[in-house]
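It is worth pausing here to work through a concrete case rather than discussing structure prediction in the abstract. The textbook approach is simple: state the sequence, then state the predicted structure, then interpret. We follow exactly that order.
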Amino acid sequence: MAEAAAPTGQARPGPAKQGPDAPPGHGRRRAAFGFVFVTVAIDMLSVGIFVPVLPRLVADFMGGDEVAAASMYGLFGTAFALMQFAFSPVQGALSDRFGRRPVILISNLGVGLDYVVMALAPSIWWLLAGRVISGIASASIATAFAYIADVTEPEKRAARFGMLGAAFGLGFVLGPAIGGLAGSVDPRLPFWIAAGLSLLNACYGYFVLPESLPPEKRAPLSLARANPLGALVLLRSQPQLLGLAGVWFVSQLAHFVLPTIGVLYLTFRYGWDERTIGFTMAAVGLAAVIVQGGLIGPGVRLVGERAALIGGFAAGMVGLSIQGLAPEGWMFWLGIPFTSLWGFANAAGNSLMSRRLGPSEQGRLQGANACLMGIAGLIGPGLFSQVYALALASPGTFPGPGAPFFLAVALILVAMLMAVRASR
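Step two, the predicted structure:
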């Protein structure tokens, strides 16, 4: 059919804008989401891939002194968390000013080159410097969430955020497994694998990742926006946003119970070996992938974001209660499906927060959320490990070694009560 003529006096519309700054169409949105999903998965895979070998490398550099190695390894974890806290809002603000595409691509490139440095590190201080740089570069996860908020309708954001949560789980499941196998060949091989994956993803993204934030919707860059305190001030701009931020922080704090004392608890209470614990952790990650990748989308469409938020917290409380009480190992496994449903709360809460700000603030919002996660990461391990130590120092008293799980249950209850109020 011939094209209709433009009305008299009106210019005929020109061709659609092309190039990396063009708004992504439907097909490009799919490719872009796939790239962002892979980016988050690779970031998490790269974190998990050297978990089996990094302590060994640190111990080797420290001359086999286990006490000194443990202290130094703790410094590695603290340094990474501090870099995430400090630079997540910086990258979020940069993405609000210059667009998501350059920040994500440069971050991928930086992570890849950093793992090359770590693979070649001739001393413990080079290795620590690499860990610091990886904490800075991988802070782009906040920008990845902002990208998804840009290209996704508000009512579908919870599902997409859930998919990114599945990428986290997938990376944590596959990372240690790949790292263990590669590390058995050479303790530096996992770093080369992580570097190769990140650099290949950067090259791929250069060709498939369109910009999601048009120039007219970008915000000016300022020191007030690009620092942790400035990012957190954003959360005070609306009472509901501040309330949901409090919910997010308390929930993230509770999440640190299993990573902090999981291995110690499973070994002490059930006498499990490394193989059984590894299978259990893989099951936890797999359940999270199933829930966040397949169930959150239809679940939120069915019940709505507010019900998903509150219901997710209720499921998390049930699951952690089962795990804290379970006298036998098979009973601990019964709690895994419930704790995986906790993922509904995080995806729905993030979606509700994103609805309250415009496109030019999404990067700053996700940077602020990452700051809260960083603070939780600094507090959580010390809190839960101390509670566990106190519980073991008082044998025969309730709640026994499950005390950290019940502390997490109490935190989730606080988060749920806050969510009821904040999500009205």
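Step three, interpretation. Residues 227-424 form a domain with the Growth Hormone; Chain: A; fold (CATH 1.20.1250.20). The radius of gyration is 22 Å.
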